[in-house]
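User: Earlier you gave me the apo prediction for this protein. Now I'd like the version with S-adenosylmethionine bound, so I can compare the two side by side. Same sequence as before, with the ligand SMILES added.
Assistant: Got it. Here's the input I'm using:
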Amino acid sequence: MNAGPSTSPAQAALLAAWREDEQHHHEGWDFSHLAGRLTEDEPPWDFDEECRACLAKSGHVLDMGTGGGERLASLREALPPDTVATEGWAPNLPVARARLAALSIPVEDYDPDAEPCSPMPFGNGRFDLVMNRHEGLDPGELTRVLVPGGVFLTQQVAADDFRESEDVFGLAPRYPDTTLEVVATQLVRAGFRIEASGTWRGTYRFHDVGALVDYLKLVPWQVPEDFCVDRYAETLLGLHASGPAQGNPVRFTKSRFWLRARVNSTPRIASQGIS
Ligand SMILES: C[S@@+](CC[C@H](N)C(=O)[O-])C[C@H]1O[C@@H](n2cnc3c(N)ncnc32)[C@H](O)[C@@H]1O
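And here is the structure of the complex with S-adenosylmethionine:
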């Protein structure tokens, strides 16, 4: 896939610029540095507003997969004093802890996708609201840590997000089960009822290929594990030739769903029973 000896000086300059984007240091979960280079459609619902509405009725709150704590901190006025977060990606743990310590929000180390899976580090019925934006989840653990009647609110990056990656980079979807149908069914089996939900598809527009390279450093699960500018030079030059070189952005599908679920008063499946 290397560009090879026939690379023109203009292509060599592009590759050099993209290598610089590849070296960009990211901290936390923040894409704001790509403003102007990446423009994205947004879903018709406002997930933060959904969270605020639920927070107004909740006293014991968990935010799962808080990233660098950026989004949770942005909700600070709506949070009750008993708010806790989890983060399972080691580089983001200290970032989240540093940001959220100022708000007296502890951050526990927990990765719902870890193998073997482990229980959430909380007792039974610890929360009346669990928020989860773009993080894995274990339905049985959610029913366990929520009180009966408690609420689980999530927005997810759907299985077909970045689906063009299959054609462009040869990568089959990494999370084929992350659909509203599958997740809602799993939650119902675990003892939830679904109160509201929605799905939506839009577009990411990368106005230069370097912005795509930078973005993919933050979401490496959307490209093959060996992705780097030099190994995929030919592919990236092809994206440039058919897109930005002609004044068009590189487009990828953006796909999201959200749902609000409530634990039945008598859960159908008994919890795994740690306290
Ligand atoms: C997609 S982020 C969402 C963060 C936050 N909930 C939000 O909505 O802003 C979900 C999780 O992926 C983690 N993560 C970020 N980069 C990662 C990487 N390269 N590999 C594995 N996990 C990563 C984040 O730290 C976070 O816990």
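For your comparison, keep in mind: The pocket of S-adenosylmethionine is lined by residues 29, 65-67, 70-71, 87-89, 92, 133-135, 220 (CB under 6 Å).
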